[in-house]
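TA notes. Do not distribute before section.
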Amino acid sequence: MGKPATLPCSAGIGLRAPHYREVLNTLPQLGWVEVHSENFFGDGVPLRTLLKVREHYPVSLHGVGMGLASTEPLSPQHLTALRSLCDQVQPAAVSEHLCWNAASGMVINDLLPFPYTQEALLHVASRVDQVQEKLGRQLLVENLSSYLSFSHSEMTEGEFLAELSQRTGCGILFDVENLYVNARNLGVDAEKFITDIPAAAVKEYHLAGFSVHDGCLVDTHDHPVHADVWALYECALRHLGPRPTLIEWDNDIPPLQVLMAEAEKAQKRLEHCHAL
């Protein structure tokens, strides 16, 4: 099936529907691509398109609907569909958000925060174990952009992720823009987060753009990467080292060349870090 299922330590882009045809027709120089897993569940044109893309590029599957911290049982249908997708695509990485999204039988179309307590750690760890056993592969867990914090949290998000990784063997998808949003909105100590998480567990970086509404930074993925996020990314590279890096752009999606130009900025920083 084309290139082997490993993510190169280079810059990639989030591949969205407006660019499928252009990417397949022109085969641009892309290190790798990432797609949202749920868009490709079941048979049909989207999956066939992704399999064609997979012939030319390593693919990372990024989930948005599992709800690792929800108290509702993990959906067997969701896990079975994800396992089937993995078997067909042979992705280089599979990731999910550290959030909850369901309660009382209702699924909420959002990525919601929760308190970082020992009780929550045991709960999430058991669910990560369940997912990894079902998939037969490592899961990467992504830090969350949040607009509130819980006074009864017993640890920081970075400490939570570090402990979760140690207990389950999961990897960490470090979303740099999410951390920057939390630092600005909630006063999270970004440098402490970077030093809290184990470098060996970090397998991927995400970069994206935010919007500002009434003084609040919102993780909208509809702008170029902000200069301050680039600076925080450079800080992460110095402390944690180079990793595969994704440019996410999910709303007001620009031409492919704009995405590739953003990826090139990340690529130059990765190469500089490699050269040090």
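Switch to the second chain here.
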Amino acid sequence: MEDSGKALEKFGDLSLVASDDGSRFFSATHDEIRRGDVSDVYFLKTLHVLEAAGLAGTLVEADIHASDDGIFAGAEEAKRLLAGYGVRMRSLKEGDGMSAGETVMQLKGPYSKFCLHETALLGMLASSSGWATAARACVEAAGKNIPVACFASRHLHPAVAPVMERAALIGGCDTASNILGASLAGRDPRGTMPHSFILIVGDTLEASRLYLEHLKEAGPLVSLVDTLNDEALEAVRQAVELGPELYGVRLDTPKERGGVTPELVREVRARLDQAGAPAVKIFVSGGVNPDKIPELAAAGTDAFGVGSYISDANPIDMTLDLKSIAGRPVAKRGRIPGPAVNERLVEVL
């Protein structure tokens, strides 16, 4: 169904929402998000009744608070969602730490202007903050001098993978592999090479030579050395044959072979040093998480690629409460009436 361009306003507008036509993906388009199609239906019911009763323009203030400690992210998308609606927005800065129960964002404006967007707004903040928090945990485990790259897009629906990679960058990752995600964050996408490339070529060294021949402008060569042969011996072979053209080797040993262990990293480092290649870096990916990172770093890892630990992060639940109606402090049971005071909030919109 083509986008009608009309925002949902009353319950009968459900007929404007797309149904399955056998060809579209099941993710929402940007227009559908902005129109309110992804809202929980009870917000549309609420808007319908308030409009009919002449109450939709009531001036309100709302607090959004986090359910857990973490790293705050998603404010930029929230800003873009509500831009032009006459809603004032204050929030923490993206990348700031947040505490459980802390008010991370406040909204002020006519309730009708953001009622239908509460679902999307909270989802944007919850998911991005969860991913940013997981990324920060990896970055902190690695320490200041060891970069962490986000390799997590394959574990998520493609419609949201770029959002996740941006959140990982906010959380502190140095690079991201998703082309669109990195580009939207103002970065160049970074990656090494897949096993499929080496399998098709049939030899890791020949694959590295082809990379150097055809992709020099794509960045330094990091050769994936676990595909066909012993990792340590393949690393030495690459270093001896390619010399200074080899920037690094990547270890991504599958779990069927025991995964990448500190012992393996230590052996690869020792054999490279013995072969006169102390400058060759060791990049580790595959099952990396904050618990494994310190030992792998101590064994000689120079950089990490993290996938499912970031993509699998639980969203940090966000809750929106009305705290003021027409200037009068209010709250539902169990909450304190009136907007919370948080001096860390800055004007966003």
